[in-house]
Specification:
The chain is of the alpha/beta class and about 400 residues long. The protein is built from four helices and 26 strands.
C-alpha cells in the first residue's frame, strides 16, 4: 500500500513539472492568437472603411459632385478613426465601359499586445480598394436577357442576326439568365451563355464558345430622377396627361418631360432628351432623333425609317410605372400601342446607343441596327438585325452603378 502511495506522489510531481514546463508555451500560443486576432480585426475594419470610400468617391465622381473623389476621404476616418495616410484619387480606366475608377488607400498602427514582450509594440496594417462606375453588369454584354426562369421563353436569335464588337476586348457576348437559342444565319463574335443551356441550330455560331450553365446576373433598375433630363420643359401634368405630338417637316429642340403619349411622325427631326410619364412613345415615318427617349409606365414603338443618334445617352428605355414585371412580359405580342415597359422596333431602324427594358420585352424585327447594347427582361431578335457592342457608348450612359473591382 505504501508503495502505491509513493508511485502516485511521484506521478503527481511529474505532472506539475510538465505543466510548469508547458505553461510558457500555452501562454505564448494564447498571446499569438490574441495578437493575430487584433491585427485581423483592424485589417477588416480598415478594409471596410476603404471600400466605402472608394464606392462613395466613384459615385460622386460619376455625377460630377464638387470635390470628388477626394471628398470621400471622410468615409475612411468616419469608419476607422485610427486610419492615417488616407489617399483618394481617380486613376485611368482600363476599359471604356468603366470611365470612372476611384482608388482609396489608408493605413493604421495596431498595438502588438502580447508581441510587445518580444519587442513588437505595434504592427502596420494597410488597405486599398478600387471602385468603378458603370451602368451595371448586364451592360457588359451586347445582348442580355434577365428573366431567370428556364421554363419561360428563352433568349432567341433567329434569322440573319449578327452580334459583334468595335474591336473591344472582350468581344461582344450574349447572355441569358435562362436558356439561349440561336438558329438560322446567326453569328456572335464573343461567348454565348445560357442557364441551363445553349442551343445552336443550323448555321449559327459563337466564335468564342458557349457557357453552360451561365451565371445569374441581376438586372439593375433606374429611377425617374436618374433619367430626368437637364432643365426640361414640362408638357401636361399627372392629372392632365395631354401628351405631345411632333409631326410634319419640322425640327424640335430641347429637353421635355411629357405626361401622356409622345407621338412623332412625318419627316421630323427631334433634338433633345425626353422622359414620358404614363404614356407611350410611338415614332413612324421618316424621323431622326438626336437624344434619348425614356418612358415610365408605357412602351416604345418605332416603325418606318427611324434613326436615333447621340450615342451614350439613356437611349431607348422603357419601364413599368411601378418597376414591377409587366403582365405581358412573358407573352410578348408586339403591337401599336406597345405593352407597358416594352420596346418594339420594326422597319428600317438605326439606334446608336442602348436599348433597355428591365420589366418587359424587347422585340427587334425587320432591318434593325443597334450600335450599343440590347438589355431586356425578355429579348427576341428576328430578321435582319445587327448589334454592334460599343463600350464607349455604354460607358457614357449617365445612370451609373458603383461596384468594387479590386
Amino acid at each position: 500500500m505504501r508503495h502505491l502511495w509513493k508511485q502516485w506522489r511521484m506521478r503527481q510531481g511529474q505532472a506539475l513539472v510538465m505543466v510548469a514546463l508547458s505553461l510558457p508555451l500555452l501562454l505564448g500560443m494564447g498571446g499569438v492568437g490574441l495578437t493575430v486576432g487584433t491585427i485581423y480585426f483592424a485589417q477588416a475594419k480598415l478594409q471596410n472603411a476603404v471600400d466605402a470610400a472608394a464606392l462613395a468617391g466613384a459615385k460622386a465622381l460619376s455625377v460630377g459632385a464638387t470635390g470628388a473623389p477626394a471628398s470621400a476621404a471622410s468615409y475612411i476616418t468616419a469608419n476607422d478613426p485610427q486610419a492615417t495616410n488616407v489617399v483618394i484619387s481617380s486613376i485611368p480606366s482600363t476599359t471604356p465601359d468603366r470611365p470612372t475608377i476611384v482608388q482609396a488607400s489608408a493605413s493604421t498602427q495596431v498595438p502588438g499586445t502580447f508581441a510587445a514582450l518580444f519587442g513588437y509594440s505595434t504592427f502596420s496594417v494597410a488597405a486599398q480598394a478600387q471602385a468603378a462606375a458603370s451602368p451595371g453588369q448586364p451592360f457588359n454584354f451586347a445582348v442580355f436577357q434577365g428573366d431567370p426562369n428556364p421554363s419561360n421563353q428563352e433568349l432567341l436569335l433567329s434569322g440573319n442576326v449578327s452580334v459583334d464588337s468595335t474591336g473591344s476586348t472582350p468581344a461582344a457576348a450574349v447572355h441569358s439568365n435562362n436558356n439561349l437559342e440561336l438558329k438560322g444565319h446567326v453569328s456572335v463574335d464573343g461567348t454565348c451563355g445560357g442557364d441551363p443551356s445553349v442551343s445552336i441550330i443550323g448555321q449559327a455560331s459563337c466564335a468564342a464558345g458557349t457557357i453552360e450553365p451561365a451565371a445569374q446576373i441581376a438586372m439593375p433598375q433606374w429611377t425617374v430622377p436618374e433619367a430626368m433630363p437637364t432643365n426640361p420643359t414640362t408638357i401636361g401634368s399627372p392629372t392632365n396627361a395631354t401628351g405631345m405630338t411632333i409631326s410634319g417637316s419640322t425640327t424640335t429642340d430641347g429637353n421635355y418631360v411629357v405626361y401622356g403619349n409622345l407621338t412623332i411622325d412625318g419627316n421630323t427631326t427631334v433634338n433633345g432628351n425626353y422622359v414620358v410619364e404614363d404614356g407611350n412613345i410611338i415614332i413612324t415615318g421618316n424621323a431622326s432623333v438626336s437624344g434619348s427617349l425614356v418612358t415610365f409606365g408605357g412602351g416604345i414603338y418605332l416603325a418606318g425609317n427611324v434613326t436615333q443618334s447621340n450615342g451614350g445617352t439613356l437611349a431607348l428605355a422603357a419601364f413599368t410605372s411601378n418597376d414591377d414585371l409587366s403582365s405581358t412580359a412573358l407573352q410578348p405580342a408586339p403591337n401599336d400601342p406597345p405593352d407597358p415597359g416594352s420596346i418594339v422596333l420594326k422597319g428600317r431602324i438605326t439606334v446608336n446607343s442602348a436599348l433597355y427594358a428591365p420589366d418587359s420585352y424587347i422585340d427587334l424585327k425587320g432591318n434593325v441596327t443597334v450600335n450599343g447594347a440590347v438589355v431586356g427582361y425578355l429579348v427576341n431578335l428576328n430578321g435582319n438585325v445587327s448589334v454592334t457592342y460599343s463600350p464607349t457608348v455604354i460607358g457614357a450612359i449617365p445612370v451609373q452603378q458603383v461596384t468594387l473591382i479590386q
